[in-house]
Amino acid sequence: MSDCIVRISPSDGTVTGWVLLNELSKGLIRDGYIIDVLNGIAWDADNDRIFVTGKLWPKLYEIKLHPRKKPLPHPIERMCLQGPANPRVM
């Protein structure tokens, strides 16, 4: 129930990182869409691409991953493990 994707090592199951996608949902809400949770992730191995979408999202996004340049405003647990920051109509 958050806008985060956890990256997990397939070899040992450890968490290797996080993908934070809260700006995508904030933009949709700001544009007047009533959306639900991020719940669609697809990897196109042939073309090295990642796509994401969500329940009731009107768009499919191709995303590029890159390291975060600024420190997080809150601990990752607060941002990703305690539910969405923005209340949404479900």
TrEMBL record:
SUPFAM superfamilies: YWTD domain. One of its GO terms (molecular function) is glutaminyl-peptide cyclotransferase activity. InterPro entries: QCT (IPR007788). It comes from the Eukaryota. PANTHER family: GLUTAMINYL-PEPTIDE CYCLOTRANSFERASE. This is Glutaminyl-peptide cyclotransferase-like protein. It comes from Ambrosia artemisiifolia (Common ragweed).
